[in-house]
Design goal:
Layout: H1 7-24, E1 32-35, H2 38-45, E2 50-52, E3 62-63, E4 68-69, E5 72-76, E6 82-85, E7 95-98, E8 107-108, E9 112-131, E10 138-142, E11 147-149, E12 159-177, E13 184-194, H3 202-221
Antiparallel strand pairs: 1-12, 2-13, 3-6, 4-5, 5-9, 6-7, 8-13, 9-12, 9-13, 10-11, 10-12
Helix pairs in contact: 1-3
Amino acid sequence: MWNLHSKSSLSILAGTTALALTCLACPAQAAVATYTSSSAFLSAVGGSLQTETFEGLAVDTVLANGSGLNGLTYTFSGGLAGRIDSTYNRFGDRSLGAVLHSGADFFLNNESISVNFGGAVNAFGVFFNASQSPAGAWFVATDTGGMALSSALYDTPTFHFVGLVSDTPFNQVVFGGNGTGLSGFNVDNLSYNRSANRIPEPGALALASLLLLALGARTRRG
């Protein structure tokens, strides 16, 4: 029987505890599932998604750089601003374009949008209304290192879908274009899933198991 009061047992316990505590500091590697099909994404995430549709906003409403809307904060690359559009839509009659620059209301191929969720999420998907987009021209990247790229095929007519689900919650995404030439995009509907319960890190589980084992040994001795 393991005697917690023997020197050897205490040494083993101390060494194992130190190892478990060290594991707590080990960074977890995020596992990310990526999607270019909106139906597959919705099936994977289920009914817990929140969706920003931009509906109910007046056409030509300007979304200034760094401003908030419905609990999300938007930052646009290059100091741009967003603009509510009624032309390039797939769902409803509103979408997010750019304030006119260079004669276009699309974000251009080297421009991006950052969204801060004000809390942890573990899934995000966005529809890009795209012009002249090769495979991989549209991307989504999280602040924890996850990334998804568009395919060569539209998900719906003229719209690419890019989504990801991560087992490591993230607080922010950047999405946009990395195409060439005259590629451009605007955004119609973006969806996200708030992460209510964070999965314990492996190191925390190891420490919890160790403490339970020690408690069980003490109980048996008593």
